[in-house]
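Input chain follows. Return structure tokens only.
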Amino acid sequence: MGSRSFAPTLIPAIAFLLLLPVLLRLGIWQLDRAEEKRQLIANLQAKSNQPSIALEQALQLEQPDQTKVEVAGQAVPNLHLVVDNQKRDGRLGYEVFALWQTDSDKSSQQPNYILVSRGWLPRQDFYEKVPKIPPFEDQSLEGQLYFSKGSNQVVAQNAQWQKFDDAWLIGQFDLETIAEKAGEIGYHTAPFVVRQQADPNSPFVRQWELVASPPEKHIAYAIQWFGMALVLIILFIVLNLKRERQDESANG
């Protein structure tokens, strides 16, 4: 390379050879995760286009998550569990949970109550503590099953509930913490939520995310890892180019 030669020393060369495959593998792993998410979304979208089935039938499936169900029973009146600080389209609001008593017989091993996400309501002003919640008077319940993807330990350990008339308010979302609160009140629930189906006549917004992290997010992470690998290669080359010393005796 002109008056320079590429002469890496041993320790930087070993570090480079160890770090480069790690960065490349992380990038490839994120690409694999993106493909997994694409397949998962395709499967969940296919489920969402299928007709509703009875809850008991859905729970017999190998993968009941996101299955459309219909549940016989009745709403528990005058009780809501409200999660604050939920954003949608850049606007703050609340996710509102209610309880539904199923018609399952007393000999059933399934809990008699299930959590229902009625949807999202916008915050009306800065001073609003809880939203104005329409009564839960639905005569039937239809929606999609949603199983917890794991508890949020930060929320679970720092959960602070506030009571406002017929609503309990918490500042952050954690499904297991909400279910635990329902149990404290006296309603021991099944290990899932029914997210109510969209209704154009309802004040609730019911646009559920199929996955928490879309494929595009994993693609962005992959680009970052590959970018770091490229920077590492460039730095390794540049920092190990040594200027060649001219032989003074030859010049003399």
